[in-house]
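Box S1 | Example of a co-folding query
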Amino acid sequence: MNRTSRLERGGTPPLSHAPSGEETSSIGARMRSRLEAYGFLSPAVLLVTLFFFIPVIIIFILILSDLKSANFGTLQWWLPVNWSLENYAKIFGNKFFPKILGNTFFYVAVTLTLFIFSSALLIAVLTTHINRRAGFFFRVLWLLPRLTPSVIYIMMWQRMASRAPHGILNQLLVPLGISTGGDLIQAAPWLFVIIANGMIGASFGMVIFTSAIEAIPKDFMMASKVDGASTWQTIRHVILPSIKWPILFVITYQTLSLLTSFEQIMLLTDGGPGLYKTEVWALTAYHRALSNYFGNNQWGYGSAWAVILVIIGVAAASIYMRVFKFDELVQEPKIDLL
Amino acid sequence: MTLKQKIGAAIPYVILVITVLPIVVGYFWLVLSSFSVSTEGLRSTGFTLSNWSFLREPPFGRGYPSIWRVTFNTFVVAISMTLTVVIVSSLAGYALSRLNFPGRKSFLSLTLLLHAFPSVTLLIGIYFVLRALGLYNTLLGVGMVMIGFELPFGIWLMKGFFDNVSWDMERAALIDGASRFRVWGEIILPTVKPGLAALAIFAFISGWNAWLIPRTFTIGAGQQATLSVFLNNFRSDTVAVQWGTVTAVGLFQLVPVAIFFIFTQDLLLSIYAGGAKGGT
Amino acid sequence: MKVKLENLSKRWGKVVGADCINLDIGDGEFVAFLGPSGCGKTTTLLMVAGIYKPTEGYIRFDDRVVNYLAPKDRNIGMVFQSYALYPHMTAFQNISYPLKLQKTPKEEMKKRAQKVADMMDIGHLMDRKPAQLSGGQQQRVALGRALIKEPQLLLFDEPLSNLDARLRLTMRAEIKRLQVDLGVTSVYVTHDQVEAMTMADRVAVMKEGKLQAYSPPDELYDQPRTLFVAGFVGSPPMNFLDVEVVRENGDYHARRKGFDAVVPSDRGEKAAGKGNVILGIRPENITIANVGVSGEIYVVEPLGRDDLITVHIGEASVHVLSDPTLGLRMGQTVTLGFNTHKVQFFDPQTEKSLLWMD
Ligand SMILES: Nc1ncnc2c1ncn2[C@@H]1O[C@H](COP(=O)(O)OP(=O)(O)OP(=O)(O)O)[C@@H](O)[C@H]1O
Ligand SMILES: [Mg+2]
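Box S1 (continued) | Returned holo structure for adenosine-5'-triphosphate
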């Protein structure tokens, strides 16, 4: 539209006295500005629809069906006649179900307390109380596991634990008589699963705690030192109370991510050794549906496992938004589209 | 300083060194092994450069793609993922931060929800989406999934950056005669360069390192393989592993990321702390 | 170009930005919006610019309603308090950006940018980025960017408030001069009354979103229509005393405890018999005299050319401007003469002037 015509349109004769409350923008202009906004959003909306919404819907239908490699193409899984709750009967009837459930709780709880919380906090406190550059150096080292391709990272751990004479730990432990030289992952799989995952997870808490600690006004720390507080007292009475929210955030966020991620476990033990020794919930879902390990992809059954995590995920995510007042970060635009 | 004070000051270092030891030992072994005939614990049985010969010929035998082919795949995936994530996130982040339109609030809550949402739980559903689109077992499909997974973080990060851009500047540009799209591209984007850079680095690293998604949606070691998948195929329990070569290829993959990281650590650490919390 | 605001309002939910503003701006006129922080000056200006959409009412440019017109189609130039320069562009790129958007040929763009730059006296700074310019230079670049389109309406939002006092004086004169030379209709938002009074042809005083007064500066000063305007315009501010005006022996007396002044009958008659009214008088209209009202000096504040003294008269107190050479001291008793030809009267309930009514 050229400029004069737009001016003319703007010039439609107005009422001499505008009735109050009357909408003062033209429908055409509003349409145009909306299209503009949706234009900016459309690529994101497309991808989010393809890889979040549709998959969620698919999964929720799949849990009702018995779709697997064997009947793929013949079973009309999208038709309600083929729906049942059979999958859940199968899950709860599975004799390894208690084992997997227990594994999941054990893994999440132990990793969380030992690493995500304790180690992360310890490193954050220590590295902020020593020489700045040294502190930075240690934090960078701790970030390495997160930046390293997981395949390589896990490879390091496997080598660390492998049997004598190759294993690094065995080189030390065999002479001390603590180990007989066998593969240590076979001997203590949980130990390695938890350490390997924990060292990645710890860096998340470490970074957030560090920035929270550095944000504590220096006066606070000084005041407590002047008052004659010991380092431990400073930590207890000054640092911990002022990073209460970051701690809560890290714990909740990481609980969810431990609960649902399985990449490192899959690479390290793949749920073994033996039957379901370190198999966790998320890994079970993946194994059943997408891994050819059992020679049969049981998509329906696998989804039934996964959906429980999806529900936990949505619930947890909406709780964050409430608790951490994310919506307060949202400000109103200060330009009206005409 | 008294002896007691000296010991007190040394304690944090001692603890830090001990806790960080596994990492240091692990990476030391990685380097050692790539230059060794074989290793026993942290001892090399002999120095060799032959592990690095994969740079000239396919590392695991003639039947497999060359390292350059695989690196190229990885690079293409990482770069296109980076570009797309940056563009799509900054478009959407701009709209969410700056434009007023019906449904803005819902879009914002949705982004937040997805930001905290564990996307790996959706892999099964995505498998069917990719099959329906004919993108299963293609680099394009893998790339798109990874872009999708990275978006909630990217959008939220960029929205945070846009929130801090001066409104007057944008108003000035509108009065000067720019369209909203030009304002975005010519005025606003150049002022959020640190955000774009940070997002690009995050996206690149996650694209370069990705293993789970490529492994799930493409078939193993074919011409489509990316570095992680490729490498993992030679790290099995069943056949004797050529540790020297595997570690050399691993280092080959790790080095670009490490270099990237060393140069941008300051930026990344601060964004990471802020971005993880949901915006700067 | 003439500008007319008709019943213009802007609300965000319960927050009121501008409330039913009616205002006419003549072609080539320089109008200042004056008011305390948060009174809706910027809001009104941004509606004129097309950045904010009015909740109610109309904006007319030369009788044409422009409510629906996008900012870029309004042919306006705007200068912001924060300068709002594009940090990644040089001064030249900043100034010529509006022309670039109009797809002006390179050569012409250069010529016009140069012309504007010379006018602003920043020709030698064209290659610098905003960060390498001083506040005053940045503001000139911003001004240049607003002028280059040869707009029909110039909008200023507190353009000088980030500059130091000296520079403010210079720029004030320059902007005024430029506006007269170019003859562009201009709206100038400020909370600095000296700026408003010295630069504008007419001043619109705003408070809490409402237009309080709209008149030429001298009229605003001498004939304030409301208590708010009387108190807001003028520095040091006008004195207010609760009085009762009575007629005795043909004279009008304004009285309160310890205070009695004869006021001219043209003013007095409008306030007489109304019970308690508010008398307003400016500090410069009170002098130290031999006869009059006596009071005690509470404090003396030297302002340089004058002393500002606060005098207690019974329970009331007034500010007086006096000659420093008198050597007045705290605690001293003085007699004050009131130049009652300049007194104002206001109704305490409506806060409207009893003397000047439309
Ligand atoms: N985008 C907005 N959303 C909500 N309220 C707003 C917005 N812009 C302004 N307001 C409110 O409208 C009122 C008027 O604001 P405005 O910015 O117009 O004041 P102002 O006169 O320019 O003040 P100042 O001299 O401080 O710049 C204020 O109460 C302000 O809080
Ligand atoms: Mg303002």
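Residues 275-280 of chain B have pLDDT under 50 and may be disordered. Chain B has two domains: 3-52, 83-273.
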